[in-house]
Amino acid sequence: MELRQLEYFVAVVEERSFTRAAERERVAQPAVSAQIQRLERQVGQPLLARSSRDVRLTQAGLALLPHARAALAAVRDAQAAVDEVAHLVRGSVAIGTVTSHPVNVAGLIAAFHAEHPAVEITLGTDNSDALLTMLADGRLDVAIVSIGVDEEPPGLDYVVITDEALDAAVAPGHRLSRRKTLSLAQLCEFPLISLPVGTGLRSRLDSACAAAGVRPRISFEATSPVELAELARHGLGVAVLPQSMARSRSDLHALRLAPELRGRLVWAWRRDATSPAARLLSERARAVINAPEQGAGRPG
Questions:
Q1: pLDDT-based confidence at 84, cuts 50/70/90?
Q2: All residues at 6 or more sequence positions from 238 whose CB lies less than 8 Å from its CB, including other chains
Q3: Which of 98, 122, 219, 265 is close enough to 161 for a disulfide, judged by CB 3.0 to 4.6 Å?
Q4: What is the reported pTM?
Q5: Which fold has domain 91-290?
């Protein structure tokens, strides 16, 4: 049983696709298939059930998976121990972010790369729910995500980037433009403009409405708060926006929501992370986030 076979096996399981696993491992897809077949011959059982839509674990595959992950983690830990003796940081760090945040991630990566050129860094974007799932199962090392003010994601540590209220926002000519506050029940009487399901802002809205016994009427969705503001500016409905954005635009009228909705953007990492590279990157990120010039941002 070779480490490469276990690595390909774990990649196929996590990606649920031989093609995506090959892209992740940067090899040709037939190479992944061949190594998985060799592994199945060695253990004497099929490990994966293949279909035209996806790939699923068999009972034998389910039994092997935690041991495969443990073996790969042990190899990474052994290499990290040797690297620490040699004062060399290498390996890889996978970063995920929401689409809208105030952290200069490119600058952070550039500064880190200058000090640790042997570390391979990948960066991707997704919604908060997906990013939290990828953090939990180890596909990401760190992520910028949106969480509720009373939310404590299990198994994660984090530092707060922003903590901000959410406002309703309408075009100046809208019939709500003379009001200053709006209850959730009143908000739900109007067509709403919001981020999609899975984002932090949408989760705050849906949870608050459910607690109040009302249901939001989502008429338009967009992938960033800036797009929400533009849709509201054109009179297409009531946008739910970070307060800093709703109140900084002269082409929108902001209304305070009652009860108040708040969201936090956080830099999160796995509490049990053993990668020296991921730990060092998070230390640098925390220093940047806590610097006075970091400034306010917007929950995505």
A1: low
A2: 168, 169, 170, 174, 176, 187, 190, 191, 192, 193, 232
A3: 265
A4: 0.66
A5: D-Maltodextrin-Binding Protein; domain 2 (3.40.190)
φ and ψ at residue 193, rounded to 5 degrees? -120, 120
The pair of three-digit structure tokens given for residue 114, joined into one six-digit string: 């200058």
**Which CATH code of 3.40.640.10, 3.50.50.60, 1.10.10.10, 3.30.565.10 fits the domain covering 1-88?**
1.10.10.10
The domain ranges of the chain are 1-88, 91-290
Mean pLDDT of the chain: 87
